[in-house]
Amino acid sequence: xxxxxxxxxxxxxxxxxxxxxxxxxxxxxxxxxxxxxxxxxxxxxxxxxxxxxxxxxxxxxxxxxxxxxxxxxxxxxxxxxxxxxxxxxxxxxxxxxxxxxxxxxxxxxx
Amino acid sequence: xxxxxxxxxxxxxxxxxxxxxxxxxxxxxxxxxxxxxxxxxxxxxxxxxxxxxxxxxxxxxxxxxxxxxxxxxxxxxxxxxxxxxxxxxxxxxxxxxxxxxxxxxxxxxxxxxxx
Lengths: 110, 115
Prior knowledge:
The complex is a heterodimer of chains A (about 110) and B (about 120).
Chain A: E1 3-5, E2 9-13, E3 18-25, E4 31-37, E5 44-49, E6 53-57, E7 60-65, E8 70-75, E9 84-92, E10 97-100, E11 104-109
Parallel strand pairs in A: 2-11
Antiparallel strand pairs in A: 1-3, 3-8, 4-5, 4-9, 6-7, 7-8, 9-10, 9-11
Chain B: E1 4-7, E2 10-13, E3 19-25, E4 31-38, E5 42-51, E6 54-57, E7 65-66, E8 76-78, E9 87-94, E10 105-106, E11 110-114
Parallel strand pairs in B: 2-11
Antiparallel strand pairs in B: 1-3, 3-8, 4-5, 4-9, 5-6, 7-8, 9-10, 9-11
């Protein structure tokens, strides 16, 4: 089966940079995705890494090291609206199956 | 507007009474999936479908059925609901192949309570 580990909670101040780590154990690894979920809302897609390296999308970047079974999400210039839960998720089964981590609750403070 | 819709959004039912949660997408996506979300457990995949008449089990399929008779619809069926199926359910869809990102678009969720 698949297992993912990420911190349960992270707190940072507005304007700062925060990194949310994700380690995984899986067979048939296809890629690593990140999703954001605000309280009471649906998950929304942030980024996807299939190959080693950094993917940048605006204030958000995601990194993957396949050899280390490790990835992270980097959020820069934090804003209050970034307070949400962030989930890493591994794609397996040729991209058909998505297994989520238990999520990291990010609190952004003034 | 491109979207995934689910109905009902909230449902309280009793043990053993069959129910169906509908899911529909208007993006012509091949891939659709159901997840349940429980506190401390994240989202867990129940079933997925790669296209019409093609479905497969996710990580927690026990107690659930699905069907994919039309590309846009992917209903989730609970033949005999039990209290341990009380959860928040999300339907999602995606292009398959997706062009690289495998981005899944999620519906608003259905909060189910089984008493």
